[in-house]
## 1
Amino acid sequence: MGNNNNNLAKKKETELSEQCIPAYVVVTPAFNEENNIEATIESMTLQTVQPQSWIIVDDGSCDKTWEIISSAAVSYSWIEAYRRFKDPNRADDGLLLASEAEAFLEGLKLAFNTCPSPEFIVKLDADLKFGPEYFRVLFNEFSSNPRLGITGGVIYEYKGSGLVREKASSAHVRGATKIYRYACYKDIGGVLSVFGWDVIDEILARASGWYVNSFDHVHLVHLRRTASRDGRFLGWARNGYMAYYIGMSPLRMILRSLFRLIVAGDIVQSCGLAYGYFRNYFRRTKQLPDLAIRKLVRQYQWVTAGKSYDDRAVRSKNRKV
């Protein structure tokens, strides 16, 4: 009798667990990622909670990226490879042209064919590796906070032979690993295919009453250092330009650059940000045409700065304990 009760209890627990597994879709834009994407594919296939659909978009690669993702699609029914052909006459700076956002949106249309109303939408880069409980842990965070709209883990990068935590505010979720609650994604009107989309989405979410947070106890490893594709200085200069483009104030950029210099001790990163911003500021380069969004950027631009200070204080306190 006791064994029967135990079996029934285990069966009920399993059924409840299965009922709580959320339906989610993942879209991964990939450009020349032959050296990294296999680690990302392995991380996804080992997840304890797997997606309804994972669309990997080859965004005009000229290496073996397409062959790798095509092979993965053959091996796993829930993976779909999609090749995006771009206009060869178009300028080639994909970040400035928001090619990544465009690839994500194209891939998401395909994902909706399999799962029209997922509970969560994931934008995942093709140069990450992470543990098998990554998505399960973050979905538990969503369950704990009904107003959590966008989340992700904290990124670590290789520096020498060791891993170093990226110095970023927990109030910001890196564009490399965004998980959107579907209701939040609808509220903000989806991802905009504009330069700076991965900051604008969070500002629109906050303006709509949603909470945005990355969680320090959930980790990913970034296999290529942030802003390093064209050299680190130019990469961070592009980030500085992005801040100017979306409407961040000069004072905020000065403090951001100083913070990066003092906390990260990275003069290349700090100078790159300042150069990219003020070069365009003094030239009066064209900004994001949507004035309403630029005003929201000014309204919410200090959120991540304040949270960075709080995060640093908490980590310092924990080290002393």
## 2
Amino acid sequence: MEIVFLGSGGGRMVLATQARSTGGILIKTDNHQIHIDPGPGALLKMKMLRQDPRRTNVVLLSHYHTDHSGDMEGISEAVNEAVLISIKECLIGDNKVINEFYKKFYNEIIEIIPKKEIELSDLKITGTKTIHGDKSIGFIIETEGKKIGYMGDTGYFKTLSKQFEGVDLLIINVLRPNNAYWKNHLTTNEVIKILDEIKEKPKSVIITHFGLKMLRVGPLNQARRISLETKVPCRSAEDGMKILLEDVLEQTSLFGRKFKT
């Protein structure tokens, strides 16, 4: 299973400046190409990285903010026999990001809410609760015997960590470094708290969705801090980063220190 970060940026200022790309994430399995949150630049980044949007057969849309949905119309025209899984607020009403014309490119459109499980052949998608001001959702993706958690945009809340017990890889959107609090988003300090609360910890963590403050401090330094304080291997996403899930899960050390397995 391969994971491709078409972008690692988030928030209004990074979106506006494209200091980091905002194209979302691809998860590629034997039977599926899953595109999570195709924000602005998704199609261009796919071309640059030689990724074929026509192979996408599942699109996961966590919410309607532009940095997560800006290329939805272009991706919709490119997909082939695909399923769109999204909260209803992205599909209908004043904030919808896809109209009836673009909906026709999908074989099926499925609304998701927290705890709802959607099964597509050998793929299971479960919605997870977020607190993000506007409506939003996270996902747990199960396929090929592995579980990947995508926390989505959320602030910290008491039961957030419990939703991701036992995932193999946890992808966390971390807008700001250290304790630089911003409402309805996560900081490095809060990520450390979340990982400490998870009893059956993920084998690996990747942080992404960086704002300008995070970029100034350096996501790599923040990933190092998370790794050392939680004993969970953590890396920071880069634009265009490609990883094989199997390789990441086998890694038991980072930055010269061993981690318990």
## 3
Amino acid sequence: MAASNCRHFSGYKPCQRSDSCDSNCSSFELGEPRVLIIHLEALGAVLRATSILPALKRKYPKSHITWVTQRPAEALLKPNHLIDRVLTTTADDLLSLRALEFDLALVLDKSLKASGVLSLTKAREVRGFRADPKTGAILPVNEEAKELWDLGLSDSLKFDLNQKPETQLLVESLALGKFNRDPYIVELSPDEKSKVRDRAIKWRENHSVVVGFNTGCSGVIPYKKWTVEFHRRVISEVKKRFDVQIVLLGGPEDTKRNDLISAGLNVISSPTELGLRDGLCSVAACDIVVSGDSLGLHMAIALERFCVAWFGPTCPQEIDLYGRGIKLLTAAPCSPCWKRSCTKSLMCYDEVPIDAVISAVEQGLKWTTSLSKPPFLEISF
């Protein structure tokens, strides 16, 4: 009898690992309990949430994990040896979800959409958050999730009292055991690793260090990025002080902006139109990444680059740099605020001291030169 409870069993084609398909197969691997993770957005948050996977595997070593997310976030989750199946919110994938049942569902998003995804399947146990079916109000499902839920309801708690990073709050809210400060889990394919090496070597030219400037952010909170002029001022000062190569990082929405930033500055503009996976390769080819609280920062954290991270509207304590970076806080007295619009004449991104940025980059240079070899040569995910 075929071992249908094997992690690799699909029921419609051989798994190519063995000629036999039973529990005597040398590749047989029990895939239980069946766990569903629902985390749809935002991109940086989805990437950060991969840090729960080691804790999940410690608690349930043989678990089979299905992760549902929203396009294009699935590109950040594949390949990942700790995730067995990645689905999106496309109609075809949601049809597939309806055919499945789970022992445990972990709902990380506090949203109606995530609760709607949960309603399309069956789960014996749910942790995290779900909507009240009558009112639509988002509520914590388990007692452990209440702390993270409370933070969303109180500016005082979120902005001032809480000192836990989001990675810790997630592990604790999902009752996954002791928080061990596990890293983000991101994996590059062999072809991507080769691209990183080629790109890093090409970018270096006669310089020993590549400093990447992640220039953009999502449109949800547009004040998490510096102005074009401020970027130019900082880059000019970095080039004046240090013998480094500057690379501008970003996505499709940053292409024209990067052209304005780079004009006359003798910097390199990385590809911005080739998708999230290529963006990971560009970040990995840098030694130091300067960024606001955005996807680019989370990519740099995941790829273990030195981060110079500045914070204006968002909370610095929620981001863990894992000892590889410097956090710079705006001098604006109204920070953090998490506002999506602002009418102040002097914005929080205008009040990040350039000298502080230069000092942080210098710390990054010391970190980089202390390594036995460049970071791009140590990619072994």
